[in-house]
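yo, ATP-binding cassette domain-containing protein is done. seq:
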Amino acid sequence: MKKQTPIIEIKGLFKSFGKDKDVLRGVNINVNKGENLVVLGKSGSGKSITIKCLVRLVEADKGEIKVFGTELTNLAEDELNQVRLRIGFLFQNGALYDSMSVRENLAFPLQRHRPEFTDTQINIAIEETLESVGLIEAIDKMPSELSGGMRKRVGLARTLILKPEILLYDEPTTGLDTITSREISELIISIQMKFKTTSIIITHDMACAKFTSNRIVILRDGVVYTEGTYQDLEQSEDQWVRSFFI
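structure:
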């Protein structure tokens, strides 16, 4: 059986901020097509910086970043943007425009990146995408009228509307109650199945990690300390690894 080529390949990734702040010290991560990879680690271990380096929102100091078989580190801005269009990034706070309605928030990326779309096509895409996250009734509401969980869903819908092949989730359940967190975790799985997405999920929420992950990597001191399934790591003989699962 032919070995699958990872859709995301990160090799020897280094990132420092100033002289004494080494955040990434040689991170190696591969993600296969269709996989949900959860990244765990204590605060400051470099989880969020890793995915920001992946899409070059933050420039790595050293290392290789290959996505869809293309090395990103030396791409010109226009070429990089073509790759970024295939990657959705769900920021921790949802990053909605407060002055725009839900409909306008979802229309914005389409108007910017799909200029060939008619108003009718834009409206159909908005309604279909809101249906997929269970929020069609909020289409004409303002972000200020939404709960935290609803804001996360709208942020996810705005990310999904361009039909990305890769999704990067930065703490998708932070600040949400247990029931809403579970709903967001279920939505992540639903999107993986419906849209065949490949995802990296940064989280501190072990219930989310257990529910959404096909595989988990744990960062420690700027490198990948260990990896495996939730069940494998939960039963690890390493006390530090097991401390995440208590």
